[in-house]
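Chapter summary example.
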Amino acid sequence: MRDIPKLELHLHLEGAAPPGFIRAKAAQKGLDLSRIFDGAGGYAYRDFYEFLRIYEAACTVLTTPQDFHDLTLAVLEHSASEGVIYSEAFLSPDFCGGGDLEAWRDYLAAIEAAAEQARAESGIILRGCVTCIRHFGPEQARRIARCAQETAGDFITGFGLAGDETMLHPSDFAYAFDAAREAGLGLTAHAGEWGGPDSVRETLRDLRVSRIGHGVRAIEDPALVAHLAETGVVLEVCPGSNIALGLYPSLAAHPIDRLHQAGVKLTVSTDDPPFFHTSMTREYQALADRFGWEAPAFETLAQTALGAAFCDPETRRALAKRLEAK
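The structure predicted for these 326 residues follows.
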């Protein structure tokens, strides 16, 4: 299962930071972050809202471009070991210079340099999806959209919305998404996780995205499921994340197989893997064990991700060849 070539479209760079990496950075800087870890050394949280607080606390040690260079290398090294050949990471200028454009350029250069090093060492390809944080508000999202506009290109290829889905409305972020669309960026947004199926409908209507982050609660609205299948909107599904945060009690209760059977286009990702004690191999193995998914299903996942990826045609062709070689 580890050797199956995988494309991951829903990965938060900061959220993929191993606990040991954050502890080491904190020690280097004389910071005490012991409160964010459990007795086993993992991240400690009880629910989604505490998860957001712990996530943001962990990010407080990531204060320089070099920190993000080191983080990118660590994350990509792990992803490559899991058979990932292409990854899109959500990158938040809020955590890379506080949304200041010139500071963001410095952080981005460090991330890109690390991505090139990882590509040379393992062949994994990384692209960036600039992401505004919903609970930071629409005005800050406009600043983040400007960062995306000014750095859109070969590496920055997408724009997204993450954070607390229960706050505000998708329409509040329409300006930011229009700006990103004008820059030629692919668009995605978190919805249909905590906000229910209506949040998916509103996001599709107001932000006109081609992908939805999570989107699993669309299953509660059969008409919406049919619409997704008909229009080809791609869901970035993260089963391990949904279970760890208590959205579903188990994989057996998770709707991924029902959505798949209904013809909805799906990809599988890890979201924030060390927080949720998961990996791409574990995600794939769990789907095989619980739902009997076999090679054709995983090939479909890869092809769906390839078609939905925010990358240039040349990169897409190169990835297609690597999938064919397997």
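To summarize the output: The chain has a mean pLDDT of 96.
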